[in-house]
Amino acid sequence: xxxxxxxxxxxxxxxxxxxxxxxxxxxxxxxxxxxxxxxxxxxxxxxxxxxxxxxxxxxxxxxxxxxxxxxxxxxxxxxxxxxxxxxxxxxxxxxxxxxxxxxxxxxxxxxxxxxxxxxxxxxxxxxxxxxxxxxxxxxxxxxxxxxxxxxxxxxxxxxxxxxxxxxxxxxxxxxxxxxxxxxxxxxxxxxxxxxxxxxxxxxxxxxxxxxxxxxxxxxxxxxxxxxxxxxxxxxxxxxxxxxxxxxxxxxxxxxxxxxxxxxxxxxxxxxxxxxxxxxxxxxxxxxxxxxxxxxxxxxxxxxxxxxxxxxxxxxxxxxxxxxxxxxxxxxxxxxxxxxxxxxxxxxxxxxxxxxxxxxxxxxxxxxxxxxxxxxxxxxxxxxxxxxxxxxxxxxxxxxxxxxxxxxxxxxxxxxxxxxxxxxxxxxxxxxxxxxxxxxxxxxxxxxxxxxxxxxxxxxxxxxxxxxxxxxxxxxxxxxxxxxxxxxxxxxxxxxxxxxxxxxxxxxxxxxxxxxxxxxxxxxxxxxxxxxxxxxxxxxxxxxxxxxxxxxxxxxxxxxxxxxxxxxxxxxxxxxxxxxxxxxxxxxxxxxxxxxxxxxxxxxxxxxxxxxxxxxxxxxxxxxxxxxxxxxxxxxxxxxxxxxxxxxxxxxxxxxxxxxxxxxxxxxxxxxxxxxxxxxxxxxxxxxxxxxxxxxxxxxxxxxxxxxx
Length: 708
Description:
The structure is a single chain. The protein folds into two domains: 27-163 and 467-611, no CATH class; 187-432, no CATH class. It is 48% helix and 5% strand. The radius of gyration is 41 Å and the shape is elongated. A hairpin with a 2-residue loop joins strand 7 (453-454) and strand 8 (457-458). The strands form five sheets. The chain has a three-stranded antiparallel β-sheet, covered by helices on one side. Strands 1-2 form a two-stranded antiparallel ribbon. Strands 3-4 form a two-stranded antiparallel ribbon. The protein is mostly helical. Helix 5 packs parallel to helix 27 and helix 7 packs across helix 28 (616-629).
């Protein structure tokens, strides 16, 4: 649901109109926005609003033929509920390719979806009445008089449902792209940020990590195990400690000494003399520079650095550990600092790594006897010569495993330790844990089809099967109502002018075959075909030959059903013979479907318009939320819908639209760091209450303290 924004003059004015009708009724279809929208389905351009909807319906129904139907319907309403239902359901089973619009009854899928109650139900009156309920009010003459005190709650419910449902639908739609470019690592790995791709024993692993300090540089995790990188880590931590002097004794080919910063004259003399066994110290190489180069050092030099680490005394190892902040008791030799078994003594047996980048999956880095898994041998190449073979392979595998963690280069051992010790898995949730895809196809199918159609009615009409707010409450705002009514008036005028509608409206007398079916119904209900004779009296119903429903019937029901049967045939024949009727029916179906759509969605929302409470708070919340609703500028979204239901003849209605325009401006200006004066302070003045003291004085504390 939307949240309130800053209160401005327009929000305040809109709220006054919504709560107290200050400046006129805000939600009333007397005057709507002039938006001159081209309707894609009809090709017509016109205004789309609650006002244009109600005025369009009134204009259509005032035409001669619809007006005659209105008179007939008033008579049908006097019949028994069963006979009324026969009229209401006369298009049942006939589909949509019939002129049900001629009788203003539901047809096709909409008829099924509406689940109409017994009695008389017609498309246009039903739509108007429901639209009025959506607006929280009632029909007032030919207009809707709404109430923000109810509408605020209805809109909030619809907005909440649409937002939540769309999040699920969109996520399910996008789920197909998850791991599309790589291998799905398993649900545990996904939910743990790939930590379980390293080990399932996360708490113990976390404890091991917590003892490492700066031994591992996760920003250079690809160089894990590199003696040069370890040396660099010490340099970053502060100093090289006992390793400084050890570096001076490392042998080097004088021909590469220059690349390491050796003195030119010293190097030249050594080359000319063919001197061998030279050291970094003797060639004048900056030993701190060696540490900076770190993992980029040649492997033969890194191998000597490893040996130097491994040859440190116990006291010197303690010094190195101190520099790195390493407290791992299992590390007793310098070489242990590059040995995963010593770095992770508790959890090393559980460490795993992707065997290949293909779909083989994770494999244990160490075998059951503690040796390095030979299946990872190819991962020791980068550190060959720098470390013993087993350590080179183990570090290569562990480096790959750490590399699965997105953002690992921005973490530290301490941070990762804390996360690992508290991370959870899907242990014991085998149905989830064993999924082979991130989102199961059945789940995707559910969410992408759940709201697709029902009873043949498309529910969600937005992009990729998502909802718009207008799907739930749009009929009142002119969605799928204003434009169809606009075109239907034009086409009905043509049918009337051509005389085609005479088969419905012409009155040539009760016995004339040329009398239209509306009029036949009128005559029937008025008793023109009722014949009572004899003593005791016997009543029959006699419809003359040639007249719709002609025949002699023992009961009113049989006679009425005969007229209804004739009406069904007329619906079909008239549709086939008149292109104008087909256009009207297409538009009629559009209106029917929108009504059915809204009804079906409101059922899913569990929103009963008849029980919505009228509360000032609903109106206040609606006004307060205008700045937030304004930012939804999608087609059929809240901003568009609200604009279309406001009464532009009222100050509050104009203020509501103005508040939304203002909110969009404020949003754009804030992006540009422009300050505005529009918001009004809404914090009440300080007014502290009298709260009982809960603190002790010195005297009181002295009195209760235990001293012996």
